[in-house]
Amino acid sequence: MDKLLITGGKRLNGDIHISGAKNAALPILCAGLLTSGDVVLHNVPSLQDVSTMLKLLRQMGLQVTQENGVTTLNGNAVDKLEAPYDLVKTMRASILVLGPLLARFGEAKVSLPGGCAIGSRPVDQHIKGLQAMGAEITIEAGYIHARAKKLKGARIVTDMITVTGTENLLMAATLAEGETVLENAAREPEVTDLANLLVAMGAKIEGIGTDRLVIHGVDSLHGATHTVIADRIETATFLCAVAATGGDITLKNTRSDILDVALDKLREAGVILTTGPDWIRAQMSGRPKAVGFRTTEYPGFPTDMQAQFMALNCIAQGTSRVTETIFENRFMHVQEMNRLGAKIEIDGHTAIVNGVDKLVGAPVMATDLRASASLVIAAMVAEGETLIDRIYHLDRGYDRMEVKLSAVGAQIQRVK
Ligand code: EPU
């Protein structure tokens, strides 16, 4: 199993090219199931989760070609309407095939994702929404079995804001009969990116980017060409890294307008940020100031950045309070950071981080994707060597992170 060996204390200087967003690419790949036309995608990131999704979609009969950085999907020959347990258990986003399969083929069988490291993460809202659209759904032997000759438009109010829930119902509604209204819809930029692709494929969607999506179902969708948006979480992860280590980096091929709250927090921590239409420059010297926050849905502070900002707070001046409101168990990195000398206490859904002068390298274990990224940041400021085990979590969602960080001066190497 691969590990990362990191020697801390290096400043970061140079340019980093940001990849396409994982959480936009995954639903967008599933949208390929909605049409028999070619869906041509640019800026699909090279990640383990993308490979897993493509493996699942190929098993269903989707044709996938990848040439010169362009991914082309063709759903003309899709004939296996099932997502098996062995793939779903490795990647919860597999649930995103449910809506498109049901809408286009009238049937889908998808393994129920189990709980995961960050929380129980049920999919009841996906099911509730599809049932409101007329689907008959049974759950048997660990599988969701959904059937509907033709989905019918409905008004759906989800109990909470759910990102993949919104995406699943949005994809299903594009081919339903009549009008679907999704109230309490997620407004994450990745949902908007999916909606923009669907519109390019011929879907009729109003309210894109708001919490009320109105979809007028059409008989069929056609092929389209689309560029996946930049990964805002990868962007903010590198910004946190430079905030912690000090230095001067410019992130290319990214966007600042979908990162407002995270950028405000970085400024509060002492980072000098300048932005352009597709780049962000971050300059940092001295010790960061502690920044408190509470995770919420977009446009609030992203839960996917909680761990990385906590790494920054570990070595900051002052004490911060970090409250996680989206997932019930997303503090697994805390014990590992404390092994590096951090002083963090957990009180329910809040972590109280007392900034220390320095961290000291030690062997640590990654527990989930964003926790892995936070340990990389902590290791880059820790004195001496840190060996991070179980970095397969990192590979699921970051495109060659150690290569990108080495290129700007980090001492980081992958060891077998
Ligand atoms: N929830 C339910 N029932 C549902 C759906 C959600 O109770 O049917 C709860 C969840 O348990 C959670 C909350 O609602 O407490 C929000 O979950 P959401 O459905 O929004 O999360 P998700 O769609 O499963 C996506 C991202 C996550 C990201 C969250 C929140 C993808 C593929 N995943 O997950 O990304 O943390 O939204 O923004 O888009 C990551 O990239 O590291 C990651 C975990």
Automatic annotation (TrEMBL):
Keywords: Cell cycle, Cell division, Cell shape, Cell wall biogenesis/degradation, Cytoplasm, Peptidoglycan synthesis, Pyruvate, Transferase. Pathway: Cell wall biogenesis; peptidoglycan biosynthesis. Phosphoenolpyruvate binds at residues 22-23. It is found in: Cytoplasm. UDP-N-acetyl-alpha-D-glucosamine binds at residues 92, 121-125, 304, 326. It catalyses: phosphoenolpyruvate + UDP-N-acetyl-alpha-D-glucosamine = UDP-N-acetyl-3-O-(1-carboxyvinyl)-alpha-D-glucosamine + phosphate. The active site is at 116 (proton donor). This is UDP-N-acetylglucosamine 1-carboxyvinyltransferase. It comes from Undibacterium hunanense. The gene is murA.
